[in-house]
Amino acid sequence: MTYRSDFASRHIGPNQYQIQTMLLELGYKDLDTFIKAVVPENIHIKGEIEKVLPAGISEVAAIEEIAQIAKKNTVVKSFIGNGYYGTITPPVVLRNVLENPGWYTAYTPYQPEISQGRLEAVFAFQTAITDLTGLAIANASMLDEATAAAEAMTLARRVWQGSDEAAFLIDVNLHSHVKAVIKTRAKPLKIKVIENDLGKDLIPEGIFAAIIAYPDSYGRVKDLTNIVKDIQKQSALAIVSCDLLALTLFKSPGEYGADIAVGSAQRFGVPVGFGGPHAGFMAVKNGLERSLPGRLVGQSVDTHGNPAFRLALQTREQHIRRDKATSNICTAQVLLAVISAFYAMWHGPDGLAEIALRVQKFAYRFRGSLKKSGFDVDDYEIFDTIFLRSSKAEQITKTALAADFNIRMISKGELSVSFDETTTEADLLKLLKAFEAEDASEKSVNSVIKRGTTYLSHPLFNTYHSETAMLRYIRSLSDRDLALDRTMIPLGSCTMKLNATSEMIPVTWPEFNLIHPFAPANQSEGYMQLIDSLSKWLIAVTGYDAVSLQPNAGSQGEFAGLLAIRNYLDSRGEENRDICLIPSSAHGTNAASAVMAGMKVFVIACDEDGNVSLSDLKEKIEEHRNNLAALMVTYPSTHGVFESAISQICELVHDAGGQVYVDGANLNALVGVAKPGKFGADVSHLNLHKTFCIPHGGGGPGVGPVIARAHLAPFLPNHPDNDLAGPKTGPGPVSGAPFGSASILPISWMYIRMMGGFGLTKATEVAILSANYLAKKIDPLFPILYRGQNGHIAHECIIDIRPLTKSTGVTVDDIAKRLMDHGFHAPTVSFPVAGTMMIEPTESEDIRELDRFLAAMESIRSEIAQIESGKITIEDSPLRHAPHTIGDLVSQEWDRKYSRENAAFPNGQEFGIGRAGKYLPTVGRIDGVYGDRNLVCSCLPIEELASN
């Protein structure tokens, strides 16, 4: 085999010569010796996963192998509905967004100046949601419909001013998976949940909120006027679980005066994909925006007074609020929200209404045909779903299946059929034949609850209807962003590594993305094989015993892991154990997840070396020994070091009767060199969207499996609609679909299959090597804050800017913005320590890119030196004016104390891209405070545009 003919050598950036160069720089002769010096001996393994994982194979062979698995899935046209519908992704969006690394490799827009493209797209998504729901503000997407509904419940509980005993009221006709996720979330928070047939039964007293299905799971679209009023008479919040496409025809939640609307944007161009990923949504009335969970894109201004987008109200983020956070959600389904926004633009308001009306006409025609043929159907208002009763339900289902159609059998005597955008005339006629029903003539639909307000009137939704226009608009947005296809994104704790093209290819295959999550089990045999093998590989890599792939984000994996601990302790009669210890360096989601699981958080201090303080840990354990439930710890630590005392830490917690949760965010430093399930951990979540190559997509999609030792396995998530999705003793689902965001699992499957045990281990070793190489070279410029044994770091390092800030006024933000002028995305800023930067190069970057980054940091340090020597003030320095836009450079007046040349090409940029591939941010530094004080989170109405 010639060099670089295998996938591992393509994925790992540095070649053997570059690896040897870095080793020599660090004083080591080979990789094995180096790793032994870095990883504590008591946890280090070598060669173990090579024995339990298949050997890596080529890209061509892996694609052939997964194609054989895909063929075991049966693509059948589904009329199941139940929250998941057929849709058509516009080809221009499919090729230029979903399959475009400029979109799918982008990171969360924490540096908004280099994220204006995706921020504008998400801003458009928020606008579409607010317009269609008729509510004031929508967030930048949720994980799915079910978790959005659960988040709406907890939002309502937080703002409730009444009794703690108040209950949450569920419409009995909500989709079953939505109800189930709500109940899973409610139980540890001790929220009482009651069900009611809203519209028929009286609203009970003593509720803080109620959620109404609109349309409901059986197809009925009911007038919500009195329901909403009766809920609000009790000072409770009215939440509407709605369908975006239906809202083009029916009254919006806002027209009814509802407080909150939730749902899924899946049918706006995102394939069902066996359940995900899909963008959920939440919209709220004015006054609730500061309690809104997740992310919110707002419009602010830059230093030139020009409009610019950014994430708004960031004080709500978990890394700041921790156990006071409004939610543990730290990712949105950005890529899917972007697709949905472009779908709305592509079709525009008239096109969406035409699609919706066509769907509705099919439904009415089908119901009329059934009624004409003697079937027992109800006569209420519907959108896309018909509910019927029949003693022959089972036989009809089989006959429909023989005609290549899935319909939904609710019970032995009840069926429903849901139509969607993909339904054709031929489909309808074949379906009628399966029902032995005579086609009834089409009748016009006269709704009694017809929408009375306009929507999507902004030019964004009325301009890009030709492919030329849409293609160029999409390109113009991606040109405003920095993604992994342009440059290294060295974000500590976020592992922005290569997402190989071959890994992405199967995602858009119909055998994966057209399977309905509630299709008959024999239609998803390929998925089950893939899920089974991926699960076994993850268990082998981590040393645990059982895994659930259901959590559709790391935050949900955390929650599921803590819920497993909670229910395990309860099963042992230890309900009193409710204390969760969390180091001060932990990810902010940890504390929020613990609170969601019904635990109380106590913080453990870290010592001066960045390790968990053993003395403080022992003290806290003794203080809470009888009530200790868990310790949550990130390993390697969030400070970027391997703590040699990790096994001792686990023993201390176990001796006190607690469980150990190891956050899997930094697993990229462990795969093949250590196993958390073997060094003392009881449960973890794994970020497949980090370590195992699912791309970040601008802030999502994500997959966050929860993986545990055998004693916690009975308490992993399950699902009421699929017995194969978890143990019967589980706590219920944490996401709407039985297997979460299943359609992107092929990415991680491909990565592991192509890398094999040897490749995975080497990837980890090179990631650690590259980080230490960077740390050594950068330390003379900016000191490394924390080190582990032998003075080494793990896969990331923290550089301390605070002394320079004190002496010169230069801040981490100044450095982050100046890096944009060098064509780089900044490292993680001010986490986990304020005034610092955390840098993680990963294994995918070759030494040329590492040295280019070092050259940029050297240039920035020289500019700081000029401030130190008094040659220039910080206010006059290019650091404070960064990033520099094209507007800066071509303006007629230039009164700054440095040249335009230096602004655009710092230090001449002699090393690296230079003038050949110069990236220029489209906006200057953004004023975050202005944006929060003047909150604008959707496009201005057309009448306001006209008046400006």
UniProtKB/TrEMBL annotation:
GO BP terms in the entry: glycine decarboxylation via glycine cleavage system
Cofactor: pyridoxal 5'-phosphate
Entry's Gene Ontology cellular component terms: cytosol; glycine cleavage complex
Chain ranges of the Glycine cleavage system P-protein N-terminal domain: 10-435, 611-712
Keywords attached to this entry: Oxidoreductase, Pyridoxal phosphate
Chemical reaction(s) catalysed: N(6)-[(R)-lipoyl]-L-lysyl-[glycine-cleavage complex H protein] + glycine + H(+) = N(6)-[(R)-S(8)-aminomethyldihydrolipoyl]-L-lysyl-[glycine-cleavage complex H protein] + CO2
Keyword check for Cell inner membrane: no
Residues where N6-(pyridoxal phosphate)lysine is found: K690
Superkingdom: Bacteria
Enzyme class: oxidoreductase
Keyword Oxidoreductase: yes
All residue ranges annotated as the Glycine dehydrogenase C-terminal domain in the record: 763-884
InterPro entries: GcvP (IPR003437), GDC-P_C (IPR049316), GDC-P_N (IPR049315), GDC_P (IPR020581), PyrdxlP-dep_Trfase (IPR015424), PyrdxlP-dep_Trfase_major (IPR015421), PyrdxlP-dep_Trfase_small (IPR015422)
EC number: 1.4.4.2
Molecular functions per Gene Ontology: glycine binding; glycine dehydrogenase (decarboxylating) activity; pyridoxal phosphate binding
Annotated family: Belongs to the GcvP family.
Role noted for this protein: The glycine cleavage system catalyzes the degradation of glycine. The P protein binds the alpha-amino group of glycine through its pyridoxal phosphate cofactor; CO(2) is released and the remaining methylamine moiety is then transferred to the lipoamide cofactor of the H protein.
Assembly with partners or alone: The glycine cleavage system is composed of four proteins: P, T, L and H.
Protein name as annotated: Glycine dehydrogenase (decarboxylating)
Gene source species: Candidatus Nanopelagicus abundans
